[in-house]
């Protein structure tokens, strides 16, 4: 899913499942290398994790709001809050580890004590 300022709140901040946002740019080589891994991850975790893209050239204000200066930047949102970030291209293993660690926060937030 491609994110814009118009759908940001509904798709990211109000999401009932964790959202991994890829801050990307069409001219970014490492972003293009990461794209197939993110597509694969989205298929593997469908219904458990939402994977979205945000083109920083088209959505500069959102990129600035979250302090994104390098691409690719991955931000994990849980309950509308950033719970993790990574900058730069990741291997499949690194990507899975990042998702596992950051979504653990989601599990903790939904457990009622």
Helix-strand layout with pairing:
Layout: H1 8-13, E1 19-24, H2 29-44, E2 50-55, H3 60-65, E3 73-78, E4 81-87, H4 92-110
Parallel strand pairs: 1-2
Antiparallel strand pairs: 1-3, 3-4
What does this structure look like?
This protein is an alpha+beta fold and 113 residues long. The chain has a single domain (8-110), classed as Glutaredoxin, CATH 3.40.30. The chain has four helices and four strands, in the order αβαβαββα. The protein has a four-stranded mixed β-sheet with strand order 2-1-3-4. β1 (19-24), α2 (29-44) and β2 form a beta-alpha-beta unit. It is globular. The model has no long low-confidence stretch (mean pLDDT 92).
What are the secondary-structure elements, in order, as H or E?
Answer: HEHEHEEH
Strand content: 15-25%
Biggest beta sheet summary: 4 strands, mixed
For this structure, the CATH topology is Glutaredoxin
State the domain count: 1
Share of helical residues: 40-55%
N- to C-terminal distance: 34 Å
Specify the CATH class: Alpha Beta
Secondary structure tally, helices: 4
Spans where pLDDT lies below 50 across 5 or more residues = none
Number of strands: 4
Strands side by side in the biggest sheet: 2-1-3-4
The geometry reads as globular
Computed Rg: 13 Å
Residue-averaged pLDDT, rounded? 92
